[in-house]
# Entry
Amino acid sequence: MTSSNKAETRPLREELIIVEEMLEKEKRLIERLITMYSNEEDEVAAAALHKNYREKVELKNSLDKQRQGLLAKLGQLEISTSLRDEIIHMSTEIAQTLPKGSFSKKRHLMDVLNVSVQLQAGKSSSYSVEVVCHLWTDPLRIELSDPGFESRRPDR
# Structure
């Protein structure tokens, strides 16, 4: 989940870096314009500097809004440390409970994870099993012609 999440958010993070660099550049330009404006005695030059200052402030505000929007999107998409820790805790608990749990506990776990299994016609064998789970997006397909499957196959 973490690596998939990083791949999904990479373009947003790269855009955020660019926006933050542009924002810092505009802040430095605004500071220089303020210094130049305060030292300028010629009214025409001062008016031009003031106009340039207003344009830079507008651009800075626009970049700031864009930055806030990107941060909000990233906040919605990124897996927080607490969520990651909770997932690790839950998976550890599941790994410890599943082998020794009762049928009803195992069934409850499968219901919580929204696991569904379908027997289907296979590509290279007679049958395949498709497993869908709440934890991943793509179905897991298992061909039942794996070596040794016949010996492990249940009678019914």
